[in-house]
Amino acid sequence: MCFLGIVLLKIHTIIISIIILVCNTMDIVKSIENVGSYRGYAKSAFIISMVLNSFLTFAISFGSYGVIRHKKLPLKLFLFTLLAFFICKLMLAEIVDGINGKIYELLTSPWYHLDTALSLLCLIFVSALYLRLTDEADLRSQAICLSDLDSTNGCRHLESFTA
Transmembrane residues, as ranges (predicted)? Predict the structure, then answer.
């Protein structure tokens, strides 16, 4: 389990998300500069990269809500989006590298690499935060169950679900 508390995990996640947004913006700008110069699969690679960046930008805004408000569904979606973004960016770079090395150099700018690496780091912090929130919720439900223990019926808050 992660040794950081929930507050530190939230702060790290938000800070890294902001940095990813800056890197996303710079990568989109770099792709827009290059998309007009090429045709065919190179243009498609730049467009796919821009779509992935735009999708992650939306997911960061939704995931930040989950981080701040301790909502599990936005955090799950944020986790999935970060994982999908990371895998798709790696696959896109490998495919373009196999086709043409010159396009690979243009596509994988320093912003591209920084964005991909930071998405992995953010994925680690978000997954640790999600696990910490899940563990804390389980501990709270066990504490409620133990405090409501009745000698004949067990936990009172579980009786309403069985009746």
Answer: 7-29, 41-65, 77-99, 111-131
Tokens representing 148 are: 């409501």
Q: What are phi and psi of 109, to 5 degrees?
A: -70, 170
Domains contained in the chain, number: 1
The whole domain housing 101 covers: 6-162
Structure confidence by residue, pLDDT tens digits, 31-85: 898 888 888 888 899 999 999 999 999 999 889 888 888 888 999 999 999 999 9
In a domain, 1, yes or no: no
pLDDT of residue 160: 45
| 85 domain residue, yes or no | yes
- Give whole-number Cα distances, 148 to 121, 137, 138, 139, 152, in Å: 41, 17, 15, 14, 12
Residue 66 lies in a domain: yes
Largest Cα–Cα separation, the chain: 77
Report the run of H or E that residue 80 belongs to, with start and end.
Answer: helix 72-99
